[in-house]
C-alpha cells in the first residue's frame, strides 16, 4: 500500500467513524440518560441498579430475552468480584455486550467479497429479502456502490417484479453506480429475472450478483415457495447459489424488526442481516437483540443517507461508539 492509499484509507476510516457516531446519537442520548438515572446516588451495583439497568436495556429495544442474558452475566460478575462500583458499570456493560455479539461474528459471506480475488470463475450471489419499506432496494444500491468502488464487477437483478417502483428504483441505482441491471419489467417471473442475472454474471466474469426479491409477508407459504423457486432456478447456473441470503430490517421499528426477522427466517434460510435507518432513531439497541436472538450475524448497518453510509458491522466499533460520551 502506497502512502497516498494509506492516508486515503485512514481518512475514509475517520469519516465512517464520524458517520457511525452521528448515526447512533439518538440511541446514545437515550441510552446514557437512562444509565445515569439508574446509578444516580448509588456507589455500588446493587439489585436496584440492576433492575433499573434492565429497564434501560428494554427501552433501548435490546429485547427482553437478550436483556435478561446481559443482566444475568453482570449479576455473576458482581457476585464474583464482590464490589463493583457504578462508575465501572458502563465498562462492564460494554464488555458483556461485545462478548454477546462475538458469538455471531465472522468475516465470511458478502463482507469478505472485498478480499476475494478477482476472476474466480464464478460470481458470489447474494439474494436480498425483506418487507417493503425497510430500505431493501436502497441497501442493494449502496452495496453495489461499495463493491464497484472497490473494483469489483457487479450485476443487479430486479426480481421484485410485483412493485413497479422497486424495478425502476433498482434501474436508477444501477445507473448511478454504473453497473448493469437485469430487468424484465413489472409482473414478470422473478425466478426468470434471477436466472438471467446470474447467467449475465457468469458471462461477464462478474465478482458479485445481487438479486432483489419481493417484499411481501402477508402469506408465508407463498413467500417461501417464491424464494425457493428463485433459489432452484439460480442453481441451474451456479449449483451452490445463493451464497448468502441477506435480510434487510428497518432498525427504527425496534422490536417490530425482530418480529419480521423471525417470520423471514421461517420462510427462508437467512444467513446474514443488514439493519438500516439507525440514524434518527433511539432504538439502535435492536442490533444487539436481533443478532443475539436469531443467531444470525449482522453484516451491515445503515447510519445515513449517503452511499457510503451503509457500513460493515464491526461489533467492537459499534459498541465503542454506543458508549462514547
From TrEMBL:
<feature type="binding site">
    <location>
        <begin position="212"/>
        <end position="216"/>
    </location>
    <ligand>
        <name>GTP</name>
    </ligand>
</feature>
<dbReference type="GO" id="GO:0005886">
    <property type="term" value="C:plasma membrane"/>
</dbReference>
<keyword id="KW-0378">Hydrolase</keyword>
<dbReference type="InterPro" id="IPR003593">
    <property type="entry name" value="AAA+_ATPase"/>
</dbReference>
<feature type="domain" description="SRP54-type proteins GTP-binding">
    <location>
        <begin position="297"/>
        <end position="310"/>
    </location>
</feature>
<dbReference type="InterPro" id="IPR027417">
    <property type="entry name" value="P-loop_NTPase"/>
</dbReference>
<keyword id="KW-0963">Cytoplasm</keyword>
<dbReference type="GO" id="GO:0006614">
    <property type="term" value="P:SRP-dependent cotranslational protein targeting to membrane"/>
</dbReference>
<dbReference type="Pfam" id="PF02881">
    <property type="entry name" value="SRP54_N"/>
</dbReference>
<dbReference type="InterPro" id="IPR042101">
    <property type="entry name" value="SRP54_N_sf"/>
</dbReference>
<dbReference type="GO" id="GO:0003924">
    <property type="term" value="F:GTPase activity"/>
</dbReference>
<keyword id="KW-1003">Cell membrane</keyword>
<dbReference type="GO" id="GO:0005737">
    <property type="term" value="C:cytoplasm"/>
</dbReference>
<dbReference type="InterPro" id="IPR004390">
    <property type="entry name" value="SR_rcpt_FtsY"/>
</dbReference>
<dbReference type="InterPro" id="IPR000897">
    <property type="entry name" value="SRP54_GTPase_dom"/>
</dbReference>
<feature type="binding site">
    <location>
        <begin position="130"/>
        <end position="137"/>
    </location>
    <ligand>
        <name>GTP</name>
    </ligand>
</feature>
<dbReference type="InterPro" id="IPR013822">
    <property type="entry name" value="Signal_recog_particl_SRP54_hlx"/>
</dbReference>
<feature type="binding site">
    <location>
        <begin position="276"/>
        <end position="279"/>
    </location>
    <ligand>
        <name>GTP</name>
    </ligand>
</feature>
<keyword id="KW-0675">Receptor</keyword>
<dbReference type="GO" id="GO:0005047">
    <property type="term" value="F:signal recognition particle binding"/>
</dbReference>
<keyword id="KW-0342">GTP-binding</keyword>
<comment type="subunit">
    <text>Part of the signal recognition particle protein translocation system, which is composed of SRP and FtsY.</text>
</comment>
<keyword id="KW-0472">Membrane</keyword>
<dbReference type="GO" id="GO:0005525">
    <property type="term" value="F:GTP binding"/>
</dbReference>
<comment type="similarity">
    <text>Belongs to the GTP-binding SRP family. FtsY subfamily.</text>
</comment>
<dbReference type="InterPro" id="IPR036225">
    <property type="entry name" value="SRP/SRP_N"/>
</dbReference>
<keyword id="KW-0547">Nucleotide-binding</keyword>
<comment type="function">
    <text>Involved in targeting and insertion of nascent membrane proteins into the cytoplasmic membrane. Acts as a receptor for the complex formed by the signal recognition particle (SRP) and the ribosome-nascent chain (RNC).</text>
</comment>
<protein>
    <recommendedName>
        <fullName>Signal recognition particle receptor FtsY</fullName>
        <ecNumber>3.6.5.4</ecNumber>
    </recommendedName>
</protein>
<dbReference type="Pfam" id="PF00448">
    <property type="entry name" value="SRP54"/>
</dbReference>
Amino acid at each position: 500500500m502506497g502512502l497516498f492509499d494509506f492516508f486515503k484509507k485512514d481518512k475514509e476510516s475517520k469519516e465512517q467513524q464520524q458517520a457511525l457516531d452521528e448515526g447512533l446519537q439518538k440511541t446514545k442520548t437515550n441510552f446514557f440518560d437512562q444509565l445515569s438515572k439508574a446509578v444516580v446516588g448509588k456507589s455500588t451495583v446493587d439489585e436496584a441498579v440492576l433492575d433499573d439497568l434492565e429497564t434501560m436495556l428494554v427501552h433501548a429495544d435490546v429485547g427482553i430475552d437478550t436483556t435478561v442474558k446481559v443482566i444475568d452475566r453482570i449479576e455473576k460478575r458482581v457476585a464474583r468480584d464482590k464490589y463493583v462500583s457504578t462508575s465501572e458499570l458502563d465498562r462492564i456493560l460494554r464488555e458483556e455486550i461485545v462478548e454477546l455479539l462475538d458469538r455471531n461474528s465472522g468475516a465470511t459471506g458478502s463482507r469478505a467479497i472485498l478480499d476475494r480475488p478477482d476472476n474466480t470463475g464464478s460470481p458470489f450471489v447474494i439474494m436480498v429479502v425483506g418487507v417493503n419499506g425497510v430500505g431493501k432496494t436502497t441497501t442493494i444500491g449502496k452495496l453495489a456502490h461499495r463493491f464497484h468502488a472497490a473494483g469489483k464487477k457487479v450485476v443487479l437483478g430486479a426480481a421484485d417484479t410485483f412493485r413497479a417502483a422497486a424495478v425502476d428504483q433498482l434501474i436508477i441505482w444501477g445507473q448511478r453506480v454504473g453497473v448493469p441491471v437485469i430487468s424484465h419489467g413489472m409482473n414478470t417471473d422473478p425466478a426468470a429475472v434471477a436466472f438471467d442475472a446470474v447467467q449475465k454474471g457468469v458471462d461477464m466474469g462478474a465478482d458479485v450478483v445481487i438479486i432483489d426479491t419481493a417484499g411481501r409477508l402477508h402469506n408465508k407459504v407463498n413467500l417461501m415457495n417464491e424464494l425457493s423457486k428463485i433459489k432452484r432456478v439460480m442453481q441451474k447456473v451456479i449449483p451452490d447459489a445463493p451464497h448468502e441470503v441477506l435480510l434487510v430490517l428497518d432498525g427504527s421499528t425496534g422490536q417490530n424488526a425482530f418480529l419480521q426477522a423471525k417470520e423471514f427466517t421461517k420462510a427462508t434460510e437467512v444467513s446474514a442481516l443488514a439493519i438500516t435507518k439507525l440514524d434518527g432513531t433511539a432504538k439502535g439497541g435492536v442490533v444487539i437483540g436481533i443478532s443475539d436472538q436469531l443467531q444470525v450475524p449482522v453484516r451491515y448497518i445503515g447510519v445515513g443517507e449517503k452511499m457510503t453510509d451503509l457500513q460493515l458491522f464491526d461489533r467492537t466499533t459499534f459498541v465503542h461508539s454506543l458508549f462514547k460520551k
